[in-house]
User: What shape does this take?
Amino acid sequence: MKYIFEVRIREGHTAEEYADAWVRASEIIQQAPGARGTELHRKIGDPNVLIAIASWESKADRDAMEGQHNPEVAGIIRSAAPFCEITPLGEFEDPEWVVMPPDRRSS
Assistant: This one.
């Protein structure tokens, strides 16, 4: 499953500041059972808007991680709060199907 949210960087701050906090928190969170990685993407045309994606084996794994308070992660998240606004976009199942273009190398 994927947990997706939008990050808006406040004026006077940079996406790199948020990315630093994201990486530090993710390094800890990704040690949890079921964690499959995280990604940050900049919005085309607006470098102060990011989409953040955290991948998990299951919603239950993510919920279990959320249920375990980690003061270090909480501190990192608090440290980023003054320079960004985070809006959860939702939790999404892995796709039931994926359509990929044909392998052009075999032609």
Helices lie at 15-29, 59-67, 71-80. The two ends are 35 Å apart (CA to CA). The chain has three helices and four strands. Strands lie at 2-9, 35-43, 46-56, 84-92.
